[in-house]
Write a structure and sequence with these properties.
The protein has about 500 residues and is of the alpha+beta class. It has two domains: about 140 residues, Nucleic acid-binding proteins (OB fold (Dihydrolipoamide Acetyltransferase, E2P), Beta Barrel); about 260 residues, BirA Bifunctional Protein, domain 2. It has 16 helices and 18 strands. It has an eight-stranded mixed beta sheet, with helices on both faces. Strands 1-2-3-5-4 form a five-stranded mixed beta barrel. Strands 7-9-8 form a three-stranded antiparallel beta sheet, with no helix packed on it. It is elongated. The two termini are about 20 Å apart.
Length: about 500
């Protein structure tokens, strides 16, 4: 029998001992009136004499993450969320029955205690337990060297252990919740209506991406997990809802990397009577608000870089960015010059040349966009849902926001011409028939909606996972998703 199984058997034996004492090892109710973090914040700096005079009682619960026994007493370190507080368990105080329960305790067990706050002889802030309630038995020991657990596979696959072992991870997900809450509050204050759109769709749309396919048995039809909520949100603009947003889960059947997970979270919003330039100002305002709410500052460190969100942000056309940054960083500038010349000569309509230039942009230009930068004026071939520029129909009224070398947001003035939209869809269908699995499908119902008339509208999608990475200084998207996608466990 290996050590882990041996420990498990010992814990099962203690479980039976608890039952013999009339204790349910998997209890029910315990009234918690205090949290460890609150106790430390309110009383953690009080002296031994101040605590004795105050006679402060508390009721807390948590998981035992350390246990030291000596004679007829024990010290347990109780973890409550991201915070920990020491508990003193003494036979003379608890009584015979409660102390017999103490003997059956293991690291990992959940308990509730009621007691007085005091300081030990070594001046450690502690709860002197007067009552003990057993709440739940842990049958598995925590992994070896679980304090400061660093094994990436274990951390991602067993996030529950990661949260126990690394309190800083707990803080990342608290911050994630605060970021989403701040986004929601900001939009509602601006008059937006939060809505929900289908996650299973008969026609995947709103982005050029390969979808996941599922099957509905009762309807006898294939459905697709949404790649974006865009086309449904724009239907709502057609229906007369002038400002809508959705914090949504999207699914794209693509590779996994430090910035890609097949299931991810987006904020997507649409504003009637606005254009993409309005959204640049709006985005600056949103991000500076998030930074103030979450970090208390608009300047912060990210992976060794100093990011400054002070407004206004740089605005740089796509082609100009390739010329300026690409020429500086490209190992073969002559080839890039030739490609740029061909693109200009072709009237900016050659899809193959656009694709080659976009590959150059992604590989060479993107990593150099450290400070917040709006890249504007994307070619129509790269933007099947964006409105053409009046001054140059080969380009679109679109921007992508880059910070710290990666795309954070994508926005454009929406295409509301149903005839132009049909032509764009048909061009995408041709690409799909030629083998492009990420090309956009033709959605007849969406075209019908546009024919009822959609007012001038601007829309934007913001990658929440990447925003959380930025504001929590995390290099990998897996560190900001509680349960990232992994290969099956061997």
């Amino acid at each position: 029998m290996d050590e882990a199984n041996d420990q498990r058997q010992q814990r099962i034996k203690k479980l039976e001992e608890l039952r013999s004492l009339g204790v349910n090892p998997f209890g029910t109710h315990f009234e918690v009136t205090d949290r460890a973090g609150q106790l430390i914040q309110l009383h953690g700096k009080k002296t031994k004499e101040e605590l004795e005079r105050a006679g402060l009682r508390c009721r807390i619960a948590g998981r035992i993450v350390a246990l030291r026994r000596f004679g007829k007493a024990a010290f347990a370190l109780l973890q409550d969320g991201a915070d920990r507080v020491q508990v003193y368990l003494k036979k003379d105080t608890l009584g015979e029955h409660a102390y017999r329960i103490c003997v059956a305790l293991d690291v990992g067990d959940w308990i509730g205690v009621s007691g007085l706050l005091f300081r030990t002889k070594t001046d450690e802030f502690t709860v002197d337990a007067r009552e003990l309630t057993f709440l739940s038995k842990a049958l598995r020991p925590l992994p070896e060297k679980w304090h400061g657990l660093t094994d990436v596979e274990t951390r991602y696959r067993q996030r529950y252990v990661d949260l126990i072992a690394n309190p800083a991870i707990h803080e990342i997900f608290v911050t994630r919740s605060r970021i989403i809450g701040s986004m929601r509050t900001f939009l509602i204050e601006k008059g937006f209506l939060e809505v929900e759109t289908p996650m299973m769709q008969s026609i995947p749309g709103g982005a050029t991406a390969r979808p996941f396919v599922t099957h509905h048995n009762a309807l006898g039809m294939d459905l697709y997990l949404r790649v974006a909520p865009e086309l449904y949100l724009k239907r709502l603009i057609v229906g007369g809802l002038p400002r809508v947003f959705e914090i949504n889960r999207n699914f794209r059947n693509e590779g996994i990397s430090t910035i890609h997970n097949p299931e991810f979270t987006m904020l997507e919003f649409y504003v009637a009577y606005a254009d993409y330039t309005d959204l640049m100002t709006f985005t600056e305002e949103l991000f500076t608000r998030l930074a103030q709410d979450v970090l208390g500052a608009t300047t912060f460190a990210y992976q060794g870089m100093q990011i400054n969100l002070t407004r206004p942000w740089r605005r740089l056309p796509w082609l100009q960015a390739i010329r300026e940054v690409g020429m500086q960083e490209n190992a073969n500038p002559t080839a890039l010059l030739s490609l740029l010349a061909q693109y200009t000569k072709a009237g900016k309509k050659d899809a193959k040349l656009v694709a080659e230039l976009d590959e150059t942009f992604q590989k060479i230009v993107e990593p150099k966009l450290i400070q917040p930068t709006f890249i504007t004026d994307y070619p129509t071939e790269l933007s099947p849902l964006a409105r053409r520029k009046d001054a140059d129909p080969s380009l679109t009224d679109r921007f992508e926001l880059y910070v710290a070398g990666r795309e954070i947001a994508n926005a454009f003035s929406e295409l509301n011409d149903p005839l132009d939209q049909r032509q764009r869809f048909e061009a995408q269908v041709a690409r799909r028939q030629a083998g492009d699995e990420e090309a956009h499908a033709l959605d007849e119902d969406f075209l019908r909606a546009l024919e009822y008339g959609m007012p001038p509208t601007a829309g934007e999608g913001i990658g929440i996972d990447r925003v959380v990475m930025l504001f929590t200084n995390q290099a990998s998207i897996r560190d900001v998703i509680l349960f990232p996608q992994l290969r099956p466990e061997k």
